[in-house]
Q: What sequence folds into this?
C-alpha cells in the first residue's frame, strides 16, 4: 500500500497553483484625495471638504463626490468597494452629524460624473474650484453628481453612525474604473428625499480634513492584463523547461 506516498506531479501542480493564484490577484486600498458637496443652488466652497449629502434644514439639497488617484493601479479591476466614514458626533456641539432623517432609512446611490469638473491640483492643493450660489455651472455639476449611470447603492440608517458606509461598485462602475486614468471621480446622492424642507442627510459633520484615520477609501481587487498574464505564464514555462533540462 502506498496511500501516503506523495507523488511529485500533484505536488508540482499544487505549487504552481499557489504561485499562479498569488500572481493573478491583488488588493489595493486608495485614500480619497478629494471630496465635498455641490448644492442644488450650484454652490461649492473650494476649501470646504465636508462631504455631507442630502437635504438640509437650510432648504438646500446637496450631492457629494469623492476623488481617488488611480495612477498607481495596474491590471483589470474586478471588484471595488467605496468605504465612506459616517460620523457619530458633531464637529461643533449642536451641529447635525451622521445620519439625520425622520425616516427609518434612506438610499445612498453612487453616480457617474459625465463632465469631470476636477483637474490637476490647483495652487491651493485642492482639485476643485469654488462656485457661488446661483452658479449655472455649479448647478450642472450638482445634477451630474446625482444622475446618469448608477455605480451602486446602499440603504443607510441611524445604525450607520460611527462606522463606514460601504457601497460595492456594479458592472457599470467597474467599467468606469477600468476606463479611468489619473484622478477618478464618483458622485453620490440620497435618492429617497421627500419634498419637505427638513434634514434627510448622511455624512453630516464629516470633513476629509478631520476624519483622520477614517478617511474615505476605495478598496479594489485587480488581476493583471491578459498580456501580463501571458508573460507570467511564459515565465512559468521557462522555469518548467529549465527544471526538466536539469533533470536530464
Ligand atoms: Ca452623472
Ligand atoms: Ca426620505
A:
Amino acid at each position: 500500500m502506498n496511500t501516503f506516498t506523495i507523488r511529485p506531479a500533484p505536488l508540482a501542480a499544487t505549487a504552481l497553483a499557489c504561485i499562479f493564484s498569488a500572481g493573478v490577484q491583488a488588493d489595493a486600498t486608495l485614500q480619497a484625495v478629494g471630496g465635498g458637496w455641490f448644492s442644488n443652488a450650484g454652490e461649492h466652497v473650494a476649501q470646504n471638504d465636508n462631504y455631507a449629502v442630502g437635504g438640509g434644514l437650510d432648504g438646500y439639497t446637496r450631492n457629494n463626490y469623492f476623488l481617488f488617484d488611480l495612477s498607481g493601479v495596474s491590471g483589470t479591476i474586478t471588484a471595488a468597494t467605496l468605504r465612506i466614514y459616517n460620523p457619530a458626533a458633531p464637529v461643533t456641539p449642536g451641529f447635525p452629524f451622521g445620519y439625520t432623517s425622520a425616516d427609518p432609512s434612506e438610499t445612498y446611490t453612487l453616480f457617474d460624473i459625465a463632465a469631470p469638473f476636477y483637474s490637476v491640483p490647483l495652487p491651493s492643493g485642492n482639485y476643485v474650484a469654488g462656485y457661488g450660489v446661483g452658479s449655472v455651472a455649479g448647478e450642472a455639476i450638482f445634477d451630474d453628481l446625482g444622475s446618469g449611470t448608477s455605480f451602486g447603492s446602499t440603504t443607510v440608517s441611524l445604525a450607520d453612525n460611527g462606522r463606514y458606509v460601504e457601497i460595492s461598485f456594479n458592472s457599470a462602475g467597474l467599467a468606469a474604473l477600468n476606463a479611468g486614468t489619473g484622478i477618478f471621480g464618483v458622485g453620490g446622492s440620497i435618492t429617497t428625499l421627500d419634498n419637505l424642507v427638513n434634514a434627510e442627510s448622511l455624512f453630516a459633520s464629516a470633513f476629509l480634513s478631520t476624519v483622520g484615520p477614517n478617511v474615505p477609501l476605495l478598496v479594489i481587487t485587480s488581476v493583471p492584463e491578459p498580456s501580463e498574464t501571458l508573460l507570467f505564464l511564459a515565465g512559468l514555462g521557462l522555469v518548467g523547461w529549465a527544471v526538466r533540462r536539469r533533470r536530464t
Observations:
- The first helix runs from residue 8 to 24.
- Residues 25-239 form one domain.
- Confidence is low (pLDDT under 50) at residues 1-8.
- Residues 101, 103, 106, 192-194, 200 surround calcium ion (ligand 2) (CB under 6 Å).
